[in-house]
Every structure is written in structure tokens, then in C-alpha cells.
Write a structure and sequence with these properties.
The N terminus is likely disordered. The chain is built from 17 helices and 26 strands. The protein is globular, with a radius of gyration of 26 Å. Strand 11 and strand 12 form a beta hairpin. Helix 7 packs parallel to helix 8, helix 10 runs antiparallel to helix 11 and helix 13 packs parallel to helix 14. By secondary structure, it is of the alpha/beta class. The longest helix has 19 residues. An eight-stranded parallel beta barrel has the order 1-2-5-6-7-8-9-10. Strands 19, 20, 21, 22, 23, 24, 25 and 26 form an eight-stranded mixed beta sheet that branches. The protein folds into three domains: about 325 residues, Glycosidases (TIM Barrel, Alpha-Beta Barrel), CATH 3.20.20; about 100 residues, Immunoglobulin-like, CATH 2.60.40.1180; about 90 residues, Immunoglobulins (Immunoglobulin-like).
Length: about 600
């Protein structure tokens, strides 16, 4: 009997751990951001002062309008909606700008009548539940709206009214004001309790599926940890806490993720790389390098990927209107790990830059017949129907300036994905690490003409300019259980495949005898961008310098060189060199300066 009770307690404990956080289900979702005022006007009586000619005025979109457009969103294929703040905001314009965006709150417990009523909000929530569409509430916790009476009533709850001057200073970011907005002193216990009470209020009233948390980098991690732990206790086990930590450095994103208690963050590092590669015709190897960092995150599949949002230029604008490049970015977001997050109108290729006037926040256009709508719908359907694209391990196969080839791998399914970012067709001639039994691979999605001839592990063919192809081999070919186990071990331990020595050879034009030359990069073996840990290169004569470094097989790394002349440091100009450690010995990498 005692043994039975012990086993029962063990089973209950294991199940409790499993139920503690089941946010893994979010990997199957497609999120969609709605800026309420710019989406759809469903109740023309609630916001009388509309001026659609003014980008800084109210345009009339509201809660009722969102509910009326759920059919449209359901047809697109989205499964979750992040709704912009609908709380009571500043009632009047501030230097010509209205609080149409919802980010100037006056009262955290009331709904702004310009967005709707509590009855309409409850109705929206119920309609979403019936359609199995998840709801994310946008929580503003860093500041209040200009001249909010609440600030005068609780003066000791706020930091001094001093604006951020140095945006690279972490202390200023957390303890000063963003453009004059009253800034909460989030380190104070009474402020922490206040926002925990707000969280409790909306969780009990609406039972949302998660929070989108605004301005993460402007609030200390201690606040976030307490706020997030409180929200988890009050909500369902799969409640998502999606933080907006707007930073392009994955190391910084990782630090915040681990220290602040989030279970999801926006993947801004990948966003900036996607923009550079697809919108600006950059080097595809940068995508491979960025994704190699995935192994260091708690779970890269829980990063929310994005093309743009209300604070960024529209991606089609970054592409200078090139619809084919835009489609590449959409396809990439739907084939790579993470939780795809569309901004309202991405599926209609809405344009606009985020400059002095917010042209990126134009009014929504609705069409289920547009080519880009149907393309986006097809890509969403593809992701939903191919489990490997949602949950498969990301396996790097090949990358050069123009081509990126990767696989998404499960024990029982393989998805092979090829992108051609070039303005010209590209020949595909590569060896893949998975057994393919078909004699031909026909694309399931993308360029249907890109049929590959297959010879076990060798693939040959051609891919059209600015195009992509997704191949889903048959069950026999995709039975890669042993391959999955091997790649998974490699993902967890980059030394799993062993190490190889690489010889780096630097040729310097007019090398200085007073200077020392060093190899540096984003890997511990070559200093991890710390100039004090860079690898000294030995002179071998004729303005040539060499260094030999042992690195894990399969590692993707960035590197370049620098010189030290006394205390003076000079960096090699141009982009980093991106390389992969090969399985064969004798690899030599040449650099010219």
C-alpha cells in the first residue's frame, strides 16, 4: 500500500509539472495584431470626432468592428488575436496627436468609450471562444498618458519627469520617461501590487489566453518576474506572456527571457536579419548564422516571429514595393520555427513607413480576392498542415549569398525548404544529410517547377529567381528517427559531432610592423567579440598571418580581423565572414584586408 501511495504521489507530481506550463501549444498558433482604431468601425455612434485624413486622429475602428470581421480573420487562418489597448485613454489631443493607439492610459480598469463598451467586449470574447480564436490583451505597465490625473494623486509612484537622453544607458531606459510620458517607478512594492491587481481584474473579467507586454526594456526585471509569476498563478496553464523586448541582439534577448519570467518574446533579432536579407537583398548566410543561436534560448520555438508592427516600417515598404521579396519573407516566417505574428494588413501588403507621421498605421483594407491575401492564406494553411514546419527541429543544410536550404525534422516527418533570394535563377546541386528514396522531389508549396532529381542524398535542380520551394518527402523518406535523435543531440550539445581544426589565413595589404593582427568573432573559441580574448595571428611572411582554431563540426560562426597598434584598435571593414565548420579535416579560411 505504501509503495502504491508513493507511486501515486510521483505520478501526480509529474502531471503537476507537466500542467504547470503547457504554453508549448502556442507553437501551433498564428497570431494577428489588431490596432483597433485602424481596423473596422462597427459602431459609428461611439466615436464622433473622426478624421480619416489625419493620421494622428481617431479613425473610428472599435471592438464591435473587430467582432464583425472575425469571419475574415477566420478565413485567413489566424488562431489568435493580439488586441491593442482599449482602456480609457487621454480624452484630448496632445500636440495634435490623439490617443487613437491606446497607449496613453488614464484608467486601467475602464474601457474607453471611443473603442466600445464592456458589453461589446464580452460579446467579442464569446465570439472568439466559439471560433477557438485566442485572445491576447495588450498590457501597458511602464507609463500613463500625458497629464493623467492619476499621476498627481500618486506622485510618489512615478520617477522624476526627466526624459531618456542616452538610449544605450540601461539605467536611463528603466528610470526615465519616454518622450515625456509619466514613468512608473516599477521597483516600488505599491506599483508592483497595483499592476498585479490590474492583471487579476482583466483575467477574471475576460479570461484571456495571454498578455502582450509593452516596453519590456523600460522596466526592471524584478517587476516583470513578480508580475509574470502572479499572472501565471491567476490564469490557465497555457497562459502566454509575450514580451516586447525591442532589441536586435539575441544575447540580450536571451538574458531578459531567462531573468524576467516570460515564456515568450518577440524575435526582433530574426526580424532585423529577415529585413536585411529579404528586403535589402542581403547575404542568406546571415539567416543561418542568426538561427544557429537558437540552441542558447530556453525554447526558440516560443519566439514570436514578425514582419512588422505598429512601431516599424511596413515590410513591403522596406522591400520598396517588391512583392516577390515580400512573399519570400512571408514564406520564410511560415516555414521557420517560432509563432508567426502578422500585423493587421500584412496579408493585404499595406504600405507605410514609421516616421514623423505614422504612415505604417493606415486604415485596414479588406479583400479576400487579392493575390497577397490568398498567398498568405496558403502559407498559413501550409504551416497548419505540416507538423514539421510548426514543431520540427531546424537543421541547417546549406547557405551562400543567394541560397538558403534548411530542413524541419521530426522523427516521422521531414520538410525540406529552399529559398532563392537572388534576382536570377539558381542551380540546386547539394548533398543533404537525410535519405531520400524518391527519384524526384516535387514541391508541395512554392515554385512548382522546381522539381529536384534525387539520388539518395544528392539533389539537383533549379529554383526560379526570388522564389522558394517546400518539399515534403513521402513517409519512407521521412522516417528519420535515428537522424532526428542525432540532430537533437547535436542541437543540445554542439560538440556531439566532434571538433575540427580550421586554419585561418589573413593577407594584409601594407601590413604594419608595429601592429599585431587578431581573429575575432561571435564564438567563444575566437573571443565572442571581446577584443581582449581575440586570437593572435602569427606572421608567416609576405604580409600574411595565420591562426589555427579548433571548433565544433557544424558550427556556424561570424568572424573578421582586427589590428592592435599599442592601445589603438582598428577593425576590418565590411561585413563579417560567415562560415560553417566542415566535417572534413584540412579546412582553410582565407581573409583579405
Amino acid at each position: 500500500m505504501r509503495l502504491f501511495l508513493t507511486l501515486l504521489v510521483m505520478v501526480i507530481s509529474i502531471n503537476s509539472i507537466a500542467l504547470a506550463d503547457s504554453t508549448d501549444t502556442w507553437k501551433d498558433q498564428i497570431l494577428y495584431f489588431v490596432l483597433l482604431d485602424r481596423f473596422y468601425d462597427g459602431n459609428k455612434q461611439n466615436c464622433p470626432n473622426i478624421d480619416k485624413a489625419d493620421l494622428q486622429a481617431f479613425h473610428g475602428g472599435d471592438i464591435a468592428g473587430l467582432e464583425q470581421k472575425l469571419d475574415y480573420l477566420e478565413e485567413l487562418g489566424i488562431t489568435g488575436i493580439w488586441v491593442s489597448p482599449f482602456l480609457k485613454n487621454r480624452p484630448n489631443a496632445f500636440f495634435g496627436q490623439e490617443a487613437y493607439h491606446g497607449y496613453w492610459p488614464y484608467d486601467f480598469f475602464k474601457i474607453d468609450e471611443r473603442f466600445g463598451t464592456e458589453k461589446e467586449l464580452i460579446s467579442l470574447r464569446e465570439s472568439m471562444k466559439k471560433r477557438n480564436i485566442k485572445l491576447l490583451l495588450d498590457m501597458v505597465v511602464n507609463h500613463m498618458g500625458y497629464d493623467a490625473p492619476f499621476v498627481d494623486e500618486h506622485k510618489d509612484w512615478f520617477n522624476p519627469m526627466v526624459n531618456i537622453n542616452n538610449w544605450d544607458d540601461p539605467d536611463e531606459l528603466k528610470n526615465r520617461c519616454i518622450f515625456g510620458l509619466p514613468d512608473f517607478a516599477s521597483q516600488k512594492p505599491e506599483v508592483k501590487k497595483f499592476f498585479c491587481d490590474i492583471s487579476k481584474y482583466w483575467i477574471e473579467k475576460l479570461h484571456p489566453d495571454g498578455f502582450r507586454l509593452d516596453a519590456v526594456k523600460h522596466i526592471n526585471d524584478g517587476f516583470w518576474k513578480e508580475f509574470n509569476e502572479n499572472a501565471k498563478k491567476l490564469s490557465k496553464s497555457d497562459f502566454i506572456l509575450l514580451g516586447e523586448y525591442l532589441h536586435g541582439d539575441p544575447v540580450k534577448v536571451n538574458e531578459t527571457w531567462r531573468s524576467a519570467g516570460f515564456n515568450c518574446l518577440f524575435d526582433f533579432p530574426l526580424y532585423y536579419t529577415m529585413k536585411e536579407v529579404f528586403a535589402q537583398n542581403g547575404d542568406c548566410r546571415k539567416l543561418a548564422s542568426r538561427l544557429y543561436y537558437d540552441r542558447y534560448y530556453p525554447d526558440a520555438g516560443m519566439l514570436a516571429t514578425l514582419l512588422d508592427n505598429h512601431d516599424l516600417d511596413r515590410f513591403i515598404t522596406s522591400c520598396k514595393g517588391d512583392i516577390n521579396r515580400y512573399k519570400l519573407a512571408i514564406a520564410f516566417m511560415m516555414t521557420v520555427r517560432g509563432i508567426p505574428t502578422l500585423c493587421y494588413g500584412d496579408e493585404q501588403a499595406l504600405r507605410g513607413s514609421h516616421r514623423t507621421l505614422p504612415h505604417n498605421r493606415c486604415d485596414m483594407k479588406f479583400s479576400t480576392n487579392s493575390k497577397i491575401f490568398n498567398f498568405t492564406k496558403e502559407m498559413i494553411s501550409m504551416r497548419k498542415s505540416v507538423e514539421a514546419l510548426r514543431r520540427g527541429l531546424h537543421c541547417h543544410i546549406y547557405a551562400d549569398k543567394n541560397i538558403y536550404v534548411f530542413a524541419r525534422l521530426l522523427p516521422n516527418q521531414l520538410a525540406l525548404v529552399i529559398f532563392n533570394n537572388s534576382d536570377k535563377p539558381q542551380k540546386i546541386d547539394l548533398e543533404i544529410p537525410f535519405l531520400i528514396r524518391e527519384k524526384q522531389l516535387v514541391p508541395s508549396y512554392g515554385d512548382k517547377e522546381a522539381v529536384l532529381s534525387a539520388d539518395f542524398r544528392i539533389l539537383e535542380g533549379k529554383l526560379a529567381a526570388k522564389n522558394f520551394a517546400v518539399y515534403i518527402p513521402g513517409r519512407e523518406s521521412s522516417s528519420n528517427k535515428s537522424s532526428y535523435e542525432d540532430w537533437y543531440k547535436r542541437f543540445k550539445d554542439e560538440n556531439h559531432w566532434g571538433k575540427n581544426k580550421i586554419k585561418f589565413v589573413l593577407k594584409v595589404n601594407n601590413a604594419s610592423k608595429e601592429s599585431e593582427y587578431y581573429l575575432i568573432g561571435n564564438s567563444d573559441e575566437i573571443g565572442n567579440w571581446n577584443v581582449d580574448k581575440a586570437v593572435l595571428m602569427k606572421p608567416t611572411g609576405n604580409n600574411t598571418f595565420e591562426a589555427e582554431v579548433e571548433m565544433p563540426i557544424g558550427k556556424i560562426f561570424d568572424c573578421k580581423c582586427l589590428s592592435k597598434t599599442g592601445k589603438k584598435i582598428k577593425w576590418m571593414e565590411g561585413d563579417n565572414l560567415i562560415e560553417v565548420v566542415k566535417i572534413n579535416k584540412g579546412q582553410e579560411i582565407k581573409l583579405n584586408w
